[in-house]
Amino acid sequence: MNGALSGRDPHTLAGAYALDAVDDADRLRFEEHLERCAECAQEVRGFTETAARLGHALALTPPPRMRERVLAQIGHVRQLPPVVALPVPEFPEASRASRARRARPSWRSGSVWWPKLTAGLTAVSMAAAVVLGVVAIRAQDLLDTTRQDNRQIAAVLAAPDARAVTDRTEAGGRARAVVSRSQDRLVFVSSGLSPLPESSTYQLWRIGPSGITSAGLLRPDASGGDPPPVVVEGIGETATMGVTVEPAGGSRQPTSTPLIMLTLPEA
Amino acid sequence: MRAEHEPRPRQDRGRPGLEELLERVARGDRTAFERVYEQVAGPVYGVVLRVLRDPAQSEEVAQEVLVEVWRGAARFEASRGSAMSWVMTIAHRRAVDRVRSAQAGTDRETRAARLEVHRPYDEVAESVQTRLERERLRRCLDGLTELQRESVTFAYYGGYSYREVAELLKVPLATVKTRMRDGLIRMRDCLGVER
């Protein structure tokens, strides 16, 4: 297990998670944890099966008209495709074309980034863990929380076009974004990033055809653990989200090579 | 620790199991979907009704869940668990979403009143298999400590978040999280759920 998670062991949430007794921020954080904890994933599988048995024992015959309605309704419902790799190959083409059209951003390490970006594409692990079918139905959960953040997070997760992308740092840190083009927003979560001295900070960037803009700093949460999920608004034509280490307070443009590059699904 | 004659929500030999049927549903097979419906409609309706308590609303939500099963069949991954648990997860989450959105804005007494509904088996079981399943479930739940049982059932049957459960039981958050986990470990072992 990862001792770096210190005070807040997300592992203990496994039971509450399997019982749907968590809010969206907890859920996102825990799913992030699950991706790199095989043991936890297995425990959750067992718990989910167990919870299903709690429900299964309550089987009751529904009114017969329900069957007719469901069968009639599926005639008009388009089925979702399986969750597989996102259309990665299109990205470099599209971005190269759009880069040709625009002025290069005034950004000195650009020549270092771009090759790394394309090379990094194959390494980006894709969307495997998006439980879209499940996540996408949580549209009603908004009101259960007073936190605006949670509402926005829930709205992104519940968007029909929500897609997830993930990346990891060489040191084992992880990042995930759930992106909704229709909402023009994404939710960014990171975990296990190496602690930084006070003189520096992690900064999140939107990278797109019209340049690079800051999407804010990633600060550890109050207890020094992983930063809370960040809602990034106005993603527009952003093609990639990057994370760099910057001097405390952040920079106007990135000054170092990104540790994380998340290639977003296209609109 | 496997029970011998457990009625398991699993496939019979020689008949396509739910997993296989879902694969066919994912390819647009309506006949396969009708068979899936036969197997899951009862459990889906039962769990939704348990959480929501209101038959009209439950019917509506159960219907949405079943349409979601059709729509999202391709998203089912057998490596991540059984088909029944995939369906039940969708059903339970959707019921919980509905209950949480409905309760927003209502006062605490109303929410507390919902607690009376957490006994999981007051409806009459309709089939022998379901009756046996409930007996076993009751026995397993009886094997939990009171706090474990309350934590698990308030959450699953009552649709409460662990924060709400902590508030209701007046115990620290960390305690509730632990009791839910410990309770599920015991239930898992008692029910003979494969790991």
Overall description:
Chain B: This is RNA polymerase sigma factor SigK. Chain B: Keywords: Sigma factor, Transcription, Transcription regulation. Chain B: Pfam families: Sigma70_r2 (PF04542), Sigma70_r4_2 (PF08281). Chain B: One of its GO terms (biological process) is DNA-templated transcription initiation. Chain B: Residues 134-186 form the RNA polymerase sigma factor 70 region 4 type domain. The complex is a heterodimer of chains A (267) and B (195). Chain A is of the alpha+beta class. Chain A has a domain at 90-263. Chain A has helices spanning 14-18, 24-35, 38-56, 64-74, 90-101, 110-123, 132-135, 148-158; strands at 163-168, 174-180, 185-191, 200-208, 211-218, 230-233, 240-247, 260-263. In chain A, the strands form 2 sheets. Chain A has a 4-stranded antiparallel sheet, covered by helices on one side. In chain A, strands 5-4-7-8 form a 4-stranded antiparallel sheet, covered by helices on one side. In chain A, a hairpin with a 4-residue loop joins strand 2 and strand 3. Chain A is globular. Chain B is mainly α. Chain B has 2 domains: 1-104, Rna Polymerase Sigma Factor, Chain: A; 120-195, Winged helix-like DNA-binding domain superfamily/Winged helix DNA-binding domain (Arc Repressor Mutant, subunit A). Chain B has helices at 18-26, 30-52, 55-72, 83-103, 108-113, 128-142, 146-156, 162-169, 173-191. The longest helix of chain B has 23 residues, at 30-52. The N and C termini of chain B lie close together (11 Å). At the A-B interface, helix 1, helix 3, helix 4 and helix 7 of A face helix 2, helix 3, helix 4, helix 6 and helix 7 of B.
